[in-house]
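Folding Query — how this chain folds
Tokens — whole-number codes for backbone shape
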Amino acid sequence: EDLGVRHRLWVYSGRRGVHCWVCDDAVRKWSPALRAAAVEYLSLVKVGAQGARHPLTPVKVEESWMSLDRPAQHREPLQGEFPKKKDSVQRWELLRARLERMRVSSRAAALGPCYADWEIMLQFCFPRLDINVSKGLGHLLKSPFSVHPKTGRISVPLDLQRLDQFDPFAVPTITSLCHELDTAGSDGEQEDVGETEPKRRARDYKRTSLAPYVRVFEQFVEGMESARRGERIRQSGECWEGTW
């Protein structure tokens, strides 16, 4: 919204990332400098030698701990108690309990609020933008529906209206698709003798788990085509008015 872009296709990488394909005509003509500036504007957490920085609070992770006491005095007891917890959920609750006691102590000692738990969540959970991919005009990019080489999962478009239902572990893999296509081709149905190979393949793919993701892609392309037709009509109307 801030950058005025409209046509954005979100695509799961097939592993642990997500790609945003921005297809507006104006954006595709941006220079590397302008692209880098856009990524800089959209980056909330910036990591460097001095720790995490972001506009939500001026307190850094290190300063949150150092404002109360030496970090080792908090780190060593946690390192001794962490192995006793069975999973990361219990360890996080242990850490939050310690931080809450630190927060209460900081208020009592008038040292200022402690935001260490929020800092940790921002530092480790907030998405990172790949500036090199975003600004480089000649950078190699994975296209939608490619296969991730490590997981075998298909890089599929995301339906933002149903994003809470998306399960990355349920995304079709190249192996599962091959099995589904073999099943579709040998299900015993009567085949049309005059049917061409491309038509048969199109019929088969629609019966696989990839079909709903292809439909998301088709809807995105249809939306772009509709917007482009509308822009051409508007421009032709302006040209027509200018002739009078």
